Amino acid sequence: MTGQSQELLTKPCAHDYKVNCGNCRLNSICLPLALERDDVEQLDEIVQRSKPIQKGRFLYHEGDEFQSVFAVRSGALKAFRTTDSGREQVTGFYFPGEILGMDGISNNLHASSAQALETTAVCEIPFNSLEKLSALMPSLQRHFFQIMSREITEDQQLITLLSKNSAEERVAALILSISSRNARRKLSATRFRLPMSRIDIGNYLGLTVETVSRVFSRMQKLEFLQVNNKEIEIKDIEGIRSLADIG
Amino acid sequence: MTGQSQELLTKPCAHDYKVNCGNCRLNSICLPLALERDDVEQLDEIVQRSKPIQKGRFLYHEGDEFQSVFAVRSGALKAFRTTDSGREQVTGFYFPGEILGMDGISNNLHASSAQALETTAVCEIPFNSLEKLSALMPSLQRHFFQIMSREITEDQQLITLLSKNSAEERVAALILSISSRNARRKLSATRFRLPMSRIDIGNYLGLTVETVSRVFSRMQKLEFLQVNNKEIEIKDIEGIRSLADIG
DNA sequence: GAAAAACCTTGATGTGTATCAAGGGGGCAT
DNA sequence: ATGCCCCCTTGATACACATCAAGGTTTTTC
């Protein structure tokens, strides 16, 4: 109904897989952060860009041999694991500039699956090469340690959310998280399209679809939010913050 | 009532802070794993051992400047973070051989607090030195990446547990986790003392104390477990596995 | 472009765990 | 030892969210 994702219309990066790390507009939030010019060029050499994957396609499956981590260049993915009883648990959503796949390092097997929520382009970073380069470039090594550490703290935030917060607080927290991640990418913090289904949201937040839907309706009634299918407009971010209770 | 923790009675390691990495009996599950003899000696030089901390004392507080990660040598700790509304969330329990503090790397601030659940001795590993040594020793770098990755996958397991599992399943999963971690340390997998309170267990599992207590009672009634205050004896591990539903 | 499938919303009812309440027991300090 | 405090257990009640149900809408498929 409304226009395409703004990402698609920007000039560098986006789905274009000929871009390099040096001119990628995401490099301030991706791996090259804080690297010198020559360092970026070295990193650029190990990064493999491939053509976009379609919605619903997998970047990797749980149990696959781990070889690379991935940086999202455009689009969005979800990561999920399957329990022994066959239920799925969504463990994260990944937007442009974010890194995924690090959970595969410990056992050399991917601990989760990654699936595109829309047409998505990624940079593949072979882990062996990243390790070697890290040993030579202290700032890269540090940066990668930091990225892994951030994944840990974000997982811990989700643990807290699931353990202590109501349905309303959980949904509010997710909206605020997506909003601030959009802002970091210089996109609107108040109007955006949710790339994932209500099912995925519910799964991620430990709620049923029905509950998620009801919370959206309530927030709309309170005039905190304008919801139109997957299009979201935040009308009162302070109101949502007050619901979220997580500052 | 029963004897002291077996840990206290073993000869090397334990609370003895003159032990070194080379002869520490935990080194097969701690950082030195897979290091060559000389490498272990180099690691040993940066590791700082101090005298044990008492029950209730903090190893670090949330918000403290991050300088080191820690390996548990004896005893046990819990890690927790405080939400803006003042509630605590226990994010993990740490036993001998396990590493904690990695959540502080991303912002140079500890993202959680660590508190001793009983008298506890740790090895402090200054992160700057660890970084430098990692750049020189590929196997150490890899091993530390793996340890961080394992923390991520364990957090994701907890996320799944909190999101999808009943009170009974959560408690069963924790008991099995502690049991297998004991086994890894060559201690009994079926008889052990829980160092943490029911309050901590409930907090970690997203349950109230009352619910945890009721689950223990039910498991005892089913003769899966013998509970005597903090002493646990697993009578039917298959029974507990069937409750846990997480293999 | 029509049919099918998947997704979303809203309402009615059920249930697992929280909350409230009260009593018992263990461990620590003095 | 003794007393206090914190922890643990058990029971009664309440509630938030799950489940069941049904209809509407969007997206996919052919």
Q: Categorize the overall geometry of chain A.
A: globular
Q: Largest interface by residue count?
A: A-B, 47 and 47 residues
Mean pLDDT of chain A: 90
Q: What is the number of helical segments of chain A per DSSP (H or I, 4+ residues)?
A: 7
**CATH architecture term of the largest domain in chain A:** Sandwich
List its traits.
homodimer, alpha+beta, Jelly Rolls, Arc Repressor Mutant, subunit A, 4-stranded antiparallel beta sheet, 7 helices, 11 strands, 38% helix
Overview of the molecule:
Two copies of one chain form a homodimer. Chain A has 247 residues and is of the alpha+beta class. Chain A has two domains: 3-139, Jelly Rolls; 164-243, Arc Repressor Mutant, subunit A. Chain A has seven helices and eleven strands. In chain A, strands 1-8-3-6 form a four-stranded antiparallel sheet. A four-stranded antiparallel sheet of chain A has the order 2-7-4-5. In chain A, a hairpin with a 5-residue loop joins strand 4 and strand 5 (88-94). In chain A, helix 2 packs across helix 3, helix 4 packs across helix 7 and helix 5 (198-205) packs across helix 6 (209-221). The longest helix of chain A has 27 residues, at 138-164. Chain A is globular, with a radius of gyration of 18 Å. The relative contact order of chain A is 0.13. Mean pLDDT of chain A is 90; it is low at 1-13. Chains A and B meet through helix 2 and helix 3 of A and helix 2 and helix 3 of B. The structure holds a DNA duplex (30 and 30 nucleotides).
Summarize the structure.
The first copy, chain A, has 247 residues and is an alpha+beta fold. Helix content of chain A is 38%, strand content 19%. The interface between A and B is large, with 47 and 47 residues.
